[in-house]
Amino acid sequence: KGFDFEFVDILMDQVSVPVVLHGGAGNAEHILQAAKRGISGVAISSILHYKLDSIRGIKSHLLAHGVNVRP
């Protein structure tokens, strides 16, 4: 379903600490949207558990859109 970015945007405007999202990531595009908003981290266990994508696939998607990721 994706993250509740309306809420995330409000939260990001109110806090000065790192924000990690959990619950809602269903694909690499959801993670990309979070990264573009400056989110510090995203929990992706469901994507991996249900084999919706792989770490390699997610990293490739992020790199293709200009997001720096660890090797």
Outline of the structure:
Helices cover 48% and strands 6% of the residues.
Rg result: 12 Å
The beta-strand count equals: 2
Q: What series of H and E elements makes up the topology?
A: HEHEHH
Looking at the structure, what is the overall shape? globular
Number of helices: 4
Return the structural class.
Answer: mainly alpha
Low-confidence stretches: none
User: What portion of residues belong to β-strands?
Assistant: 5-15%
> What is the terminal-to-terminal distance?
28 Å
Rounded mean pLDDT is 95
Give the neighbour order of strands across the main sheet: 1-2
Largest beta-sheet characterization:
2 strands, parallel
Helix content: 40-55%
Plain-language structure description:
This protein is mainly α. Helix content is 48%, strand content 6%. The protein is built from 4 helices and 2 strands; from the N terminus they run αβαβαα. A two-stranded parallel ribbon has the order 1-2. Strand 1, helix 2 and strand 2 form a beta-alpha-beta unit. Helix 2 crosses helix 4. The longest helix is centred in the first third of the chain and has 10 residues. It is globular and about 35 Å long.
List the helices and strands and how they pair.
Layout: H1 5-14, E1 20-21, H2 28-36, E2 41-42, H3 45-49, H4 55-64
Parallel strand pairs: 1-2
